[in-house]
Amino acid sequence: MGASASRGQVARIPAPEPEPEEAALGLNQLPPELLLVVLSYVPPRTLLRSCRHVCRGWRALVDGQALWFLILARDHGATGRALLPLVRSCLPPARNGRLCPLGRFCLRRPIGRNLIWNRGGQEGLRKWMVRQGGNGWLVEENGPAVPGAPSQSFGTSFRWCLKKEFLDLEEEGLWPELLDSGKIEICVSEWQRARDGSTCVYRLLVQLLDANQTVLDTFSAVPDPSQQWNNNSCLWVTHVFSNIKMGVRLVSFEHWGEETRFWAGDYEARVTNSSVIVRLCLS
To answer: Where are the transmembrane segments (predicted)?
Structure first.
């Protein structure tokens, strides 16, 4: 006897219809004025290194002035409020295919920032042009704290040691019309300290130069030699270049030091927190 088995039919259930997706709105579909607002919240480094290379439209926005004015307008401090009208008055006309000077300005933020990168030996002697005397320059701990200075300083030896740095103000983000506006000043300063129990001499020379390295203005400080028992005395040397002449494009910052007892290994005329700061004339 055979039993017959019925083979069941598997019912096919139709898959649900996918719900229609809302069309994604790309940034390029935004009106240009809204896209400018969005891009103004992107860090300047990203704007210049990435966004500028997305397409021709984005490049035109990044190269133009409107985007950078939006970024500058968010600084509501005293400097920011003074900066915006000054920039409007001295910004050169836009040129097709060239980045607006405000791009580098917003990237570098040169106003109110110390333009000397290695101000106290955090990176050894990098960025400095050096002439060694005696045992040469040494980076050492400050010992007693120096107000506002890094924990390290540069020390000189028993023969004259010289250190110099050139600052290109245009490379730092300042453009010629702004430099020649008569509305900025340059403040230079440095802490100098002598070790207790020794004597030393020190000199600071700062020069403002044009693009051909012609000297337009000079500040020189030659304090009296330190006495042997000086209780680790500190001296703050500072000067403000105001009424800056037309054509200033470079700053030369150099200092010398020498331990005058000529003891090998005794590092004196320690200097730290070397500073060059461009400021707006707010008065």
So the answer is: none
| Distance of alpha carbon 66 from alpha carbon 100, whole angstroms | 10
CATH class of 30-108: mainly alpha
Q: CB-based burial of residue 247 (10 Å sphere; 0-12 exposed, 13-18 middle, 19+ buried)? A: middle
- Please report, for the chain, the start and end positions of each structural domain, with discontinuous segments joined by +: 30-108, 129-280
Q: Which of 278, 279, 275 is nearest to 116 (CA)?
A: 275
Tokens of 28: 């390029």
**Per-residue tokens: 7:** 């083979």
Contact between 91 and 101 under an 8 Å Cβ cutoff? The reply is: yes
Give the sign of the dihedral formed by CA 272, CA 274, CA 279, CA 283.
positive
User: In terms of residues, how long is the chain?
Assistant: 283
Q: Which helix (H) or strand (E) holds 89?
A: helix 78-90
Q: Phi first, then psi: what are they for 11, rounded to 5°? A: -75, 130
For the chain, report the end-to-end CA distance as a whole number of angstroms: 116
Which CA distances in Å does 99 have to 41, 67, 194? 18, 12, 48
Are 273 and 150 within 8 A, CB to CB? yes
DSSP 51: G
Class of domain 129-280 (CATH, top level) = mainly beta
Evaluate whether 30-108 and 129-280 have a shared fold: no
User: For each successive 10 residues of the chain (283 residues), what is the average pLDDT?
Assistant: 50 56 61 90 94 90 93 85 90 83 94 92 85 77 72 76 92 95 94 71 92 96 62 80 95 85 65 92 77
CB atoms within 10 A of CB 129: 12
What b/e readout covers 9-21, taking b as 16+ CB neighbours within 10 angstroms? Answer: eeeeeeeeeeeee
Q: What is the model's pTM?
A: 0.80
